[in-house]
Design goal:
The chain is mostly helical and 219 residues long. The protein has eight helices and no strands.
């Protein structure tokens, strides 16, 4: 036990550096996923068949590929093709691009769930389609989006642990580096697991409280 605690204390500053990188990657990837996911949802709902086809193909193909392979494609394959991305940029592109398919389906389902009659009534009053989307559809869809979207955020944080494979100095990278230095892999990975658990616990509590507040305001 003494060895465990001393090892944890020794490498804790490195771990906190990894925590900062993990949080930055999560925030940047989430932003990419939300923006691209919303565009994918609009494309799949578009009356232009070419947009629907392209967005559907992207979603079906990307969702079928493991996240780790997508990260390798962004970091290694693109470099061989002449487009070299740094580790953090490749991580954001890979994670954001993958989670955009999940968020896109969440957005699309929520938008389709809004009563069609309200949209038709607004159109009958002469409201432009963009205004109908902003003023009527999206505010109602938001409440359907919130629960599954927050769940995917928790998954995104856990999937950032894969970016150490492309030399990004996140929390898992620091855990592996510490393991190589002191030959205590279980102890070092245990500390990383504890930190990920605390992330999940704090985030889930904050998001649950936020969802409750939103629902109360709606009620």
């Amino acid at each position: 036990m003494h060895t465990l605690w001393s090892a944890w204390v020794q490498y804790l500053p490195d771990y906190w550096q990894g925590v900062r990188v993990t949080l930055e990657l999560t925030g940047a990837s989430l932003l990419v996923a939300i923006v691209l996911g919303f565009l994918l949802a609009l494309a799949r709902l578009s009356t232009l068949r070419v947009l629907d086809f392209m967005a559907t193909a992207y979603v079906e193909i990307v969702r079928a590929i493991p996240v780790l392979i997508i990260l390798f494609i962004c970091y290694y394959s693109l470099a061989q093709a002449g487009l070299k991305l740094s580790g953090p940029v490749a991580a954001v592109v890979g994670l954001g691009g993958f989670y955009a398919t999940l968020y896109g389906e969440i957005f699309r389902g929520a938008i389709m769930g809004v009563d069609r009659g309200q949209k038709e009534a607004a159109a009958a009053l002469g409201m432009p389609e963009g205004l109908v989307m902003r003023k009527i559809v999206l505010p109602q869809a938001f409440f359907a989006i919130l629960p599954p979207a927050t769940n995917q955020l928790s998954n995104l944080i856990k999937d950032t642990s894969l970016v150490f494979t492309i030399a990004v100095a996140d929390l898992m990278f620091q855990a592996n580096a510490a393991s190589a230095n002191n030959f205590l892999p279980l102890d070092m990975l245990l500390l990383a697991g504890v930190i990920y658990f605390l992330f999940y616990l704090i985030l889930s509590k904050l998001l649950a409280r936020w969802e409750l507040n939103v629902q109360r305001r709606r009620g």
